[in-house]
User: Fold these one by one.
Assistant:
Number 1:
Amino acid sequence: MGLVDAQNCVNFYDGKLRVVDCEGRELYQFTARQYREFVAEHVEPWSYMKFTFLRPRGWKDFVEGPDTSLYAVGPLARLNAADGLATPRAQAAYEEFYRTLGGKPVHHTLANHWARVIEMVYAAERIAELLDDPEITSPDVRRVPTATPREGMGVVEAPRGTLFHHYQADERGLITMANMIVATGNNAARIAMSVERAAKALIRGVQDAAQIPEGLLNKVEMAFRAYDPCLGCATHTLPGHTPLRVRIFGADRRLLSEQVQG
């Protein structure tokens, strides 16, 4: 899922949300005001995060494939959801990206890092364009409301992914309801699945903490760091310290070892 302009090029502030399937075919396009028709949240008892999914498809658990209702946001998702970028050097980098990685779409989680670099090129080119735009010195920088706002919905592409925000206000203009679905919430299911896949691939035959290979926690951490997560944003908690905790269970579900980092 990613925000695109009228030409289906990556955009960060304007346009519509575009959703493509795992083969790159368009499924939906919708505006910020329609977000509740297409995005829903699922709750699991083992997490403070909510797990978003495509409402028209319904919750189908933590599964991948063409029929899944899960989706991803962020740099890689934005490139996969778009048909290109609106600046020449970024477009050339976009084409090289897919040519090198075997075509579109790309599903390699760590490719998020390369996608970020491409977006940085795009941002630099757009900065140069905006600096030459006479509107940059326009005195019209604030619109004073002529009526008391009662409800507003918006969507932007933050560096880590799509951010929905929705507010309602009373007759005095004071906010009475606020709902935010942040990028980490949108990616929560994908993050959980990536961690599970990494852990299953790396942890084998371990019986106690002494057998945990050096750097294993860092390797598992790579699986979710690629999404640039903000757990405070996603769980709406106050800033704090959250250690990385890995518990290793045997086939009989018996706890074999626990390791904490941070």
Note: Strands lie at 2-4, 16-20, 26-30, 39-43, 50-54, 151-158, 161-169, 175-181, 244-249, 255-261.
Number 2:
Amino acid sequence: MEEEDMINFTFRNPTKIIFGKDTEYLVGKETKAYSSRILLHYGGGSIKRNGLYDRVRKSLDEAGIEVHELSGVLPNPRLTLVQEGIRICREKGINFILAVGGGSVIDSAKAIAVGVPYKGNVWDFYSGKAVPGEALPVGVVLTIPAAGSESSNSSVITNEDGWYKRGLTDDSIYPAFAIMNPEVTFTLPDYQTACGASDIMAHIMERYFTNTRDVELIDRLCEATLKTMILNVPRALKNPTDYAARAEIMWAGTVAHNNLLSTGRIGDWASHGIEHELSAIYDIAHGAGLSIVFPAWMKYVYKHDISRFAQYAHRVWNVDYNVFNPEETALKGIEALEAFYTSIGLPIRLSQANIDEEHLEEMADKCTGSGSYTVGNFVKLTRDDVLNIYKLAL
């Protein structure tokens, strides 16, 4: 097992966080500092049913902002809608995008933002053919704690031509500001809350499982954020209007993916890559895909560093540490994660999501470029490794 000391890092997160009750009423003022002509980007009808849309529009109108709208963002946001947003922005001379929604809406807004000033196809950025040089500023009113996209430098888009789901990471797409009111999450369906929790926890675990040694501070921050989720998600599911629980989850989602927990270490990210192929083909919720993939990945790689998995089990799940048999401790930690997913209503097997073996080979090919590259850093996984993980997840 290759190890290295804490690596050099530069940490910068420019997103202004505006957190708390009624903060959506500040959106007009915050947006006006950037533009008087914007694209309001959102998903379906949920923000209209819960009144958030009206509150946002009122604040924007009072600030004298000209608003053009583009709705219809789907979970696993699509390239075709991104291209429509780019067209609208160019046609209307729009130079700011306001995303009102969760990670899918924000990711779509970021894709539009990098696409508007670019003369080529925006997919070039997601397929690795080009690097963004600039982007329009993006503002966020967050409705779903999950992806952490509200203060991250990443975006994931699905291309319907071949059903490829790919990500972009670039500092130009950090949002300018993120307005976060936990009250707007009170009406989330239980399943959406659970899927969001899975995504948040996966972002932490992707960073936690590292070959970098002597990174105790960030280990402890990761563990604390995971324990916060484990405590508060059941509380939010039991009482959806528990503000304290919702606030903890919302802030944990941001901390999980604003790159603080990446400092000084190299994370893994294989599970995300493996899951992206699932949700690209089957359109499964990302969090549900992760609750299936992550335990399977753990079972496949835990022997690479049994002590880290045992530490995870002990510190996060309170499993008694068996000094004579740390492997037993490690395996109990994986079992505890699966039990937690099950307790909040998430699948832990492909069969529970009605997914069979039909596309496993295809997904393994897409995940690794037909075996031309590996995925992950904790353990570098080949095409056959990825296929074996899918099979473990059946």
Note: The chain has two domains: 22-180, 188-392.
Number 3:
Amino acid sequence: MEPFYPMVVSAIAVVVTLIYASYLDIKDRRVPFIHWLPMLAVGICCTGIMLWQTSGNAGLIVGYISLVASFLYADYLDNRGRTDSLYLTRYYRKGSVFYYFALVLALPAISWFLLAPSVNMQLVAWYVMFAGILAYVTWMEYTGKFDEPVTTKRKPGEVNLADAIGRWYFIPVILIYAISSVYLISGGAWTLNEGLFILLPAVFCGVFYIFGRMHLFGGADAWALIFISLCVPTFPFTPLLGIPPLGFLAFSALINALLLNLVAPLGIFIVNLARGNRAPLMYMFFGFPVRGDAIQKEWGFVMEDFEEKNGTVNRKFIGFWDAIRRMYAGEGRVYTKDLRERPKEFTRELTIYRKAGTVWISYAVPFIIPILAGFVSAILFGDFLLSLMTMVVGR
């Protein structure tokens, strides 16, 4: 395969950005969203050029830009009151939300209907649903329906409708993008290879966007994977182990990252054994004990619950499903960064940790580092898992 030089440029921009983002994540455990924007600007331009070189299909290019715009608009809506990006004040966001909304509605209409050879009436119905969902969420944002303080107490089992809508509305939006791609492929507007440039990133990015909203992935990790798939949707050149059947670089980068990340738990388990640390087997792979009076100097989430009765400190490890529930809820987890930055809010916890002597915390190597390694290794070598399976099967 001849090199896609626009993809080479975009891949370089991604690598440089991931290196800097890894530095920020190690230093502060936070990557401000604005640092992704230069890479995204380069990636959009390069991918647009690549799509024009390979297909010459203007509708496909507008469809790709539409997908990117929808993710940026979702981030715009979902991060209300943020001050680390271009959206600096509530007033500015209030006054500009409808301009963004109009653009997000116009782009898919141009791609799906104006630049398509014929209009599919079923696709019109899906577009109306797409517009209706975003219109409703935009109205909720403009009228302040999402502004309920997180400290508001609710009865057990009571559902916050605004929170539920704000967390889940993007799932049907992504499904509509996937469905529209299938319609446009089947209708002949796009070839199968062309349509996959929209279908695969839509599904992949949608999954990790939702993972980020559910707190199952760090925000920086989720955006790194999303922007990799949008900026470099295909391999810039043939890697040493060959191109996987789908040719979707972001998926291979994720698989490689997960495989490379397995080294960390194994190393933690060995260190725990060597130091004589004892805990249930699962926790031996994902955490280690630290001094309770020095926990504020560490990085990680506390893996134990503590209770003091009659001067005695009782402790138990947090169960797997309980940990997942707390991650999803975004509460009930103690982060050492919070202990360090807001100690007055955790006076009780800090006192108990000192009395306990040691506290087990999860290891805190930012996943964005394996993502960087997975991305580079996927470009140079290919998909590790697929190659391993091919070797085992013997084909």
Note: The chain has 17 helices and four strands.
Number 4:
Amino acid sequence: MHRSPAVIARADVPTVADDAWDEAFDAAVRSGTLHPLEASFARSLPLPRRATFMAGRQALRAALAELPADAVREVPILRTPRGAPALPPAVTGSITHKRTLAMAAVAPRVDRLQHLGLDLERRPTADDLRRPSIGRKILTAREYAFVQQWGEDTLDGREQVLVHFALKEAVYKAIDPFVERYVRFTEVELDLADATDVHVTLHLPEASVADVHVEAHWRMDGEWIVAAAYSHQ
């Protein structure tokens, strides 16, 4: 499978007291891990969202630092109307975060690469087995049959469901600029039978994705499942 040249970086989500945000933003700007306009935007966010926004932008800037275009790193990266990072046209990127960790991926728009999506999910634990599986809500009939070889209420089975979930979330981000709408879980079908390749089938009515090809892959990273998807046109 062709693998797009993405750079992935991470940043811990900080713990900041409610009355210490101005100091935290000022320190991030001084260190160069946050652009002044990004800090200004973050100050306008509700308190619970500031930490993940800051960590996401810090991870994004760390990833951008691995690309050759210095000018890309000097501009503020705010948000598109759809909530994605507003990167310069020559670069595509995506941010994902959970309560304690943020990750970002960037790639130059070379060849036919258009957009990328990244998703992060925590691997299941024994406590998760006490809750109903989300498998029937997010899997197509074929995907559900594939996952059943591990059993629906085993850790391995739950992990396979979350791998599908993470991949679908990444695919949604990679195709969102083409459709600009919420995509239902059953509108994207995955075939994970080949461990080295993820086959992605789009069941979408939009003509805008008729000639779009999506590649995807995933990996385990300690307690996390990390999934990435790339749309080509």
Note: The helical segments are 21-31, 36-43, 47-64, 135-138, 141-147, 155-179.
